[in-house]
Design a protein that fits this description.
single chain; Cytochrome Bc1 Complex, Chain D, domain 2; mainly alpha; binds heme C; 2 domains
Length: 147
């Protein structure tokens, strides 16, 4: 009995000194911290995505596939098709999104930006999606920060 206590005390001491040694090391640089938080953030995002209702998951999938290339994965208008003039709509911009109530958003998606009196750079998508899919995309766009 006495021995086990002694051994566990030694183990505890050893554990403490390991913590102290590593704690005092140079390892706490900002780079290490970034490296530590990035994977955790990725895991969290995946967990959040998994909990999204089906409509938003589908909306996100369709948006990434068909719209992200111009509007950007985050919807801020900064997709890979850079250099478009005018720039693709920024769905994270609250002031801009206020000008797009649902009926206008549906019309813009179904009939293209030309039908909104704008350029013809945003194609009409009405024949690509069924009405439910368009609803999913609209619901997803509403989550991008501009509402
Ligand atoms: C080829 C690039 C491109 C793709 C792909 C694209 N867009 Fe666009 N989109 C644009 C551009 C550019 C504008 C800005 C047009 C303007 O202001 O004249 C725009 C504008 C819009 C607008 C705002 C219209 C308005 O009245 O201001 C909406 C809504 C929109 N896009 C939705 C979508 C959706 C949803 C998808 C995917 C299904 C999509 N776009 C795919 C380029 C694109």
């Amino acid at each position: 009995m006495q021995n086990t206590i002694k051994i566990s005390k030694i183990a505890l001491l050893a554990a403490c000194s390991v913590v102290m040694i590593t704690g005092c090391g140079k390892k706490e640089g900002p780079k290490d911290k970034a490296a530590q938080t990035t994977p955790a953030a990725t895991v969290d995002q995946a967990a959040i995505d998994q909990k999204l209702p089906y409509s938003l998951k589908e909306g996100k999938r369709l948006f990434s596939h068909y719209c992200g290339v111009c509007h950007g994965e985050t919807g801020d208008g900064g997709g890979q098709y850079y250099g478009l003039t005018p720039t693709p709509a920024n769905f994270t911009d609250k002031a801009f999104m206020k000008t797009l109530p649902d009926e206008k958003l549906f019309k813009a998606i179904n009939e293209g930006s030309a039908a909104m009196g704008k350029s013809n750079l945003c194609p009409p998508w009405g024949k690509s999606f069924n009405p439910e899919e368009t609803e999913f995309i609209v619901a997803y766009i509403r989550t991008l920060g501009g509402s």
